[in-house]
Write a structure and sequence with these properties.
The structure holds two protein chains of two kinds. Helices cover about 55% and strands about 15% of the residues of chain A. By secondary structure, chain A is of the alpha/beta class. In chain A, α2 (about 35-50) links the parallel β1 and β2. The longest helix of chain A is centred in the middle third of the chain and has 25 residues, at about 185-210. In chain A, about 50% of the residues are buried. In chain B, α1 crosses α13 (about 260-290), α3 (about 60-90) packs parallel to α7 and α7 (about 155-180) packs antiparallel against α10 (about 210-225). Chain B is built from 13 helices and no strands. The chains are: A alpha/beta, B mainly alpha.
């Protein structure tokens, strides 16, 4: 009997001792729920478990993260934030200002994040000098995709200026092919708009307009030229584009119904899933003009209590920016690693091009955040711009009116 | 003791639901009103900052479109659904055979959710797949019906789908009303040789005034809270041409992180509902008193 009590007591002591060391634990809120995305998250889960952690998955499907953000708001308001949340762009700083983000600078410094991440991307992960988020990948937004055989049959090269694009589109239209596959949803209009704006305003003009919200640039003649080009592009889209999903537009390029699509590199995933090969069946190039528009997925770390959760947070941050995860995850997701020192041998030619452009842009100062995908501006301002862009694209508004409306909408959103 | 229970039991039974309504309806209305006076963005803040959100709201062209659409959609939807419902009800009221089956056919759309209605009509009205393509396929090459993708006309496609959905329900309401009119009066009128249309316009319809009012109230609140139909049918597009106040509120609250703006639009929507419901309640209460 005595030995029984003794062993029970020592057993308890053992439990207590192991609790003090703290097994890493993490509850992760994310909205990667589609096939390829879920597979990518599983990579992280496995790695987390292999390092002795306990992962509690909290996937919230739907709505480009709207539903997940609503869930997050409820959790934060009730004082029970998840350990890590899939957040991106200025939303990270917005949450930081609410006073709910944790400091993971110790992990960042120990793993030398400043040296391995491009400076402008690292900037998104910092909140007033401390690190508060970890980047997972880089999606390039300013891509133009094309059907290789359609271009070949019509003797067209990938356009390098918007004038070349217009000339090619007119030629295609005359041949009875839809020049530009496009889906008429506000965010898709915004995606095309920012690619056009980057080409016409140039990287500095883009930064002034959509990062600094400089009113002179927004009201400039160049901005009018951007809207004029959008009007021209409207003529290259078929009449039935309203409300079409982006992947249906990609399918139009795939089966030769349309020639081009302007969309981020998630479109590549659609081509790949259909068994098409880059360079043979479809072509990829950056949209006309200099610069690189990125959309970086990241995990922001929230304030949590308990050693085990803090350990989980640190382990998660370390793994997310770790070389292995960055390679495997991005091979699954179709994006490129945020780290610049990951070997790209396993990646396809579009991803390799994207990575080398990213490094060059980072050095040249033209690595820019995408406004249409919530990287450059806060929700209210980005939404105001998108409202104007989609109103212009879907009506016969003049470029002058559009520019005035844009300036008013931005001022009204402050 | 028994007497005490007798007088207090109803109050005690009602108290929980009364308190729940007080908190979860009126409490939250007050909370929304408060938030609409602040600069809340991602999370609610509680420092009152005047009417700034309302200024922003009324300066927003998107809200103008949404609010204007509410009146276009609301007016057309209510009037046409009521007229159509009434005509169907009168036609069905002629003691025809298989009335039960016909009534079910007309009423059935009401059993579908607005999402299903919206999706089905999205396909029907899509110029590349639906009506337009079909008629053109029959050889009428010049036939055009592209309202769904025309920003000026798209709101009317929402009206069409909503009427299709609701007029059967209005018909059922009116049919019940027609049947409740005293047959003695009608028979007396017929004996006097008064034509049927006169019987309807002079006797039956005036006696159905309360049913008209009920139908109006039900349809107008359907119109104001309309959300799912627009989301399924047009997604608010092309551009934001078919936005309604409810979709505006949703966009501000859940995708833009602009809670103050969402709260102020919700308050304006509530005022519109009040403008309709308060006169109704007033007339109801007054008639009870008198």
């Amino acid at each position: 009997m005595k030995t029984y009590i003794l062993s029970a007591v020592s057993g308890l002591a053992l439990v207590a001792a192991s609790a003090a060391i703290a097994d890493p634990e993490a509850e992760v809120l994310h909205y990667w729920t589609s096939g390829g995305e879920a597979k990518s998250v599983a990579v992280l889960q496995e790695e987390f478990a292999a390092n002795g952690g306990t992962w509690t998955d909290m996937p919230v499907a739907g709505g480009g993260g709207d539903a997940a953000m609503t869930a997050l708001r409820a959790r934060v308001l009730s004082g029970n934030a998840p350990t890590a949340v899939q957040l991106k762009g200025p939303a990270i700083q917005e949450w930081y200002e609410e006073g709910v983000l944790a400091d993971i600078s110790s992990v960042a410094e120990a793993n030398n994040w400043d040296a391995v991440l491009p400076a402008s991307i690292a900037g998104h992960m910092k909140c007033e000098g401390t690190w508060c988020a970890a980047p997972v990948n880089v999606h390039r937004v300013d891509w133009i995709w094309a059907n290789a055989s359609v271009l070949e049959a019509n003797g067209i090269e990938m356009p390098t200026t918007w004038d070349e694009f217009n000339a090619a589109a007119e030629k295609l239209q005359a041949a009875g092919i839809i020049p530009l596959a496009h889906g008429g949803q506000a965010w898709q209009d915004a995606t095309v708009f920012e690619a056009v704006a980057l080409g016409i305003l140039g990287p500095d003009g883009y930064r002034k307009a959509f990062v600094d919200l400089d009113m002179d640039t927004i009201k400039s003649d160049e901005m009018k030229a951007v809207f004029d080009q959008m009007r021209t592009m409207r003529g290259f889209v078929d009449d039935n584009f309203s409300g079409r999903d982006w992947n249906l537009a990609t399918a139009m390029v795939m089966n030769g119904e349309a020639a081009f699509q302007i969309m981020g590199d998630w479109a590549k995933g659609e081509f790949m899933a259909a068994g098409k090969a880059p360079g043979e069946d479809f072509l990829c190039a950056s949209t006309p003009g200099d610069g690189f528009l990125y959309n970086v997925d990241s995990f922001a770390m929230f304030n949590v209590d308990g050693e085990d959760k803090k350990a989980g947070q640190e382990l998660l941050a370390k793994l997310v920016v770790g070389e292995n995860f960055q390679e495997v995850f991005n091979l699954n997701k179709g994006s490129i690693p945020a780290r610049t020192d990951v070997s790209l041998d396993a990646f396809d030619q579009c991803a390799t091009l994207s990575a080398s452009d990213m490094n060059a842009s980072s050095e040249g100062g033209s690595l820019l955040p995408s406004y249409a995908h919530g990287m450059a501006l806060r929700g209210a301002q980005a939404g105001a711009i998108t409202d104007t862009v989609t109103a212009h694209f879907n009506s016969d508004m003049s470029a002058d009116d559009a520019v005035n409306m844009l300036a008013d909408a931005i001022a009204n959103s402050m | 003791m028994l007497k005490w229970l007798e007088t207090h039991t109803p109050k005690m039974v009602l108290a929980p639901s009364f308190i729940a309504v007080l908190i979860f309806v009126y409490g939250f209305i007050a909370w929304t009103g408060w938030v609409s006076l602040t600069r809340s963005r991602l999370l609610p803040k509680y420092e009152i900052d005047g009417l700034i959100q309302y200024d922003r709201l009324f300066a927003s062209p998107r809200w103008d479109t949404a609010f204007g659409n509410l009146f276009i959609f609301g007016a057309l939807f209510i009037v046409i659904a009521m007229v159509l419902g009434l005509v169907l009800a009168i036609l069905l009221d002629q003691n025809i055979r298989t009335e039960g089956a016909l009534r079910t056919i007309y009423l059935y759309p009401m059993a579908l959710s607005m999402i299903v209605t919206g999706t089905a009509w999205k396909w029907i009205l899509n110029p590349g797949l639906g009506l337009e393509a079909t008629v053109q396929g029959w050889g009428f090459e010049t036939f055009s019906f592209d309202w769904l993708v025309d920003p000026d006309m798209a709101i009317y496609t929402v009206v069409i789908a909503a009427i299709w959905q609701s007029s059967g329900f209005v018909m059922a309401l009116f049919l019940a009303g027609l049947r409740s009119v005293d047959t003695e009066i009608i028979r007396a009128a017929q004996v006097d040789g008064i034509p049927t249309w006169r019987v309807y316009t002079a006797i039956i319809l005036p006696s159905m005034a309360p049913i008209f009012l009920s139908a109006f109230i039900v349809l107008s609140h359907l119109a104001i809270k309309s959300f799912d139909l627009v989301i399924a049918l047009t997604g608010g597009g092309p551009g934001y041409a078919t936005d309604l106040p409810a979709t505006y509120m949703y966009a501000m609250a859940f995708s833009r992180g602009d809670l103050g703006q969402a709260a102020s639009s919700a308050m304006v929507m509530m005022l519109v509902v009040f403008a309709i419901v308060v006169p109704y309640l007033y007339s109801e209460l007054r008639s009870k008193d008198g």
